[in-house]
């Protein structure tokens, strides 16, 4: 199926963004792919490049309570019994503005029984010398307080070598452990002494990661950088984000049921809140009527 798509270019970067779901279908730097993309006539596989809102990751059984009311979301990951990756990754977005180096799309989440809140989302994608930048604005246009979270879902490419050979630098002190069957949160634990300690950069090897991390170390400007490099190719890609995203999900894309798609890239997803935040309330953004939330992130070539 063909959907509207928008190409932007500048300073060596080229990106293709879809009008369906505001998904990033392609991102390159001087012709080198920075993310695992997909074809122009292909449905988005494995949430590659998805825009995820109004919650990141999973909600167990699709059930949550907010302001004294219980709600039931559609369970779109039936094998794990969860509501996965929000409400806007598969709906049309409206074009607001398109220039040679930027595109802005908008989408309104209308109230339903499952999510009885109204949010106006606007996303601006732009390329310049610093990389491929995404800026997100969410405005509560409804009458009730609204729970909200957001993240991107790119699978970064370090280079042409296998993922096992890539070197990951992940400046996070804490990992959120999960159940092995449903990948639901268990507890926050220090990464020290675990296979998930990449504070000192080293090769991924055969480690399997599908976890959220917090306790993120940042520079003086409050920026964090997750870097993945391919020593053999001499290339790499980084995800940079500020304090509006206190969490980051890392996924080594282990898909044993899809061997042709397994471990093709490393998902790096800055998140405003952890999985299950609609129930735990941890770092959950709650927007009052008329209130706005802004966040963003940048993918840059190394």
Total helical segments: 1
Mean pLDDT over the residues:
97
How do the helices and strands follow one another from N- to C-terminus? Answer: EEEEEEEEEEEEEEEEEEEEEEEEEHEE
Largest sheet descriptor: 9 strands, antiparallel
Silhouette: globular
CA-based gyration radius: 18 Å
CATH architecture: Distorted Sandwich
Strand content: over 45%
Query: Which stretches are poorly predicted, pLDDT < 50 over at least 5 residues?
Result: none
Annotated CATH topology? Beta-galactosidase, Chain A, domain 5
Binned, the helix content reads under 10%
Report the span from N to C terminus: 34 Å
Got a strand count?
Answer: 27
Q: In order across it, which strands form the biggest sheet? A: 10-11-12-13-27-23-22-17-20
State the name of the first-level CATH class. Mainly Beta
Task: Outline the structure in words.
With 302 residues, the chain is mostly beta strands. It has a single domain, classed as Distorted Sandwich (Beta-galactosidase, Chain A, domain 5), CATH 2.70.98. It has one helix spanning 277-280, and strands spanning 5-10, 13-18, 24-29, 32-33, 50-52, 58-60, 63-66, 69-72, 82-84, 94-98, 102-109, 119-128, 131-140, 146-148, 151-153, 155-156, 167-169, 172-178, 185-190, 202-203, 210-216, 224-230, 235-241, 247-251, 266-271, 285-287, 292-301. The strands form seven sheets. A nine-stranded antiparallel sheet has the order 10-11-12-13-27-23-22-17-20, with no helix packed on it. The chain has a six-stranded antiparallel sheet with strand order 16-25-24-21-18-19, with no helix packed on it.
């Amino acid at each position: 199926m063909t959907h509207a798509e928008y190409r932007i270019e500048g300073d060596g970067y080229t990106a293709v963004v879809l009008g369906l779901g505001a998904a990033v279908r392609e991102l390159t730097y001087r012709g080198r792919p920075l993310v695992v993309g997909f074809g122009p006539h292909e449905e988005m596989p494995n949430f590659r490049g998805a825009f995820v809102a109004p919650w990141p990751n999973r909600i167990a059984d699709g059930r949550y309570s907010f302001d004294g009311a219980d709600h039931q979301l559609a369970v779109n990951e039936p094998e794990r019994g969860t509501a996965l990756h929000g409400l806007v990754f598969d709906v049309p977005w409206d074009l607001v503005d398109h220039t040679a180096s930027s595109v802005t799309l908008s989408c309104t989440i209308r109230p339903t029984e499952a999510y009885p809140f109204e949010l106006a989302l606007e996303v601006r994608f732009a390329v310049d010398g610093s990389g491929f930048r995404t800026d997100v604005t969410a405005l509560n246009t409804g009458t009730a307080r609204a729970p909200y979270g957001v993240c991107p879902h790119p699978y970064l490419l370090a280079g042409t070598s296998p993922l096992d050979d890539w070197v990951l630098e992940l400046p996070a002190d804490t990992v959120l452990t999960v159940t092995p069957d449903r990948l639901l949160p268990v507890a926050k634990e220090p990464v020290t002494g675990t296979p998930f300690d990449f504070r000192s950069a080293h090769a991924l090897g055969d480690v399997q990661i599908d976890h959220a991390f917090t306790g993120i170390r940042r520079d003086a400007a409050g920026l964090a950088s997750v870097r993945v490099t391919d020593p053999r190719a001499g290339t790499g890609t980084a995800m940079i984000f500020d304090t509006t995203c206190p969490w980051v999900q890392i996924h080594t894309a282990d898909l044993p049921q899809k061997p042709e798609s397994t471990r093709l890239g490393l998902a790096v997803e800055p998140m405003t809140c952890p999985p299950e935040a609609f129930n735990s309330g941890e770092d959950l953004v709650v927007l009052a009527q008329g209130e706005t939330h802004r966040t963003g992130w940048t993918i840059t070539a190394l």
